[in-house]
Specification:
This protein has one helix spanning 2-22. By secondary structure, the protein is mainly alpha-helical. It starts with a helix and ends in an 8-residue tail after the last helix.
Length: 30
């Protein structure tokens, strides 16, 4: 159970990094 939660958190953080790298202008003023 805990492993799935950690994996999900890692996936979400990685996805947010990819989104920031792909769309940096969305995070400049935010």
């Amino acid at each position: 159970m805990l492993v799935e939660i950690v994996f999900l958190l890692e996936y979400v953080s990685f996805a947010s990094l990819v989104v920031k790298a792909g769309n940096p202008e969305l995070f400049i003023d935010g």
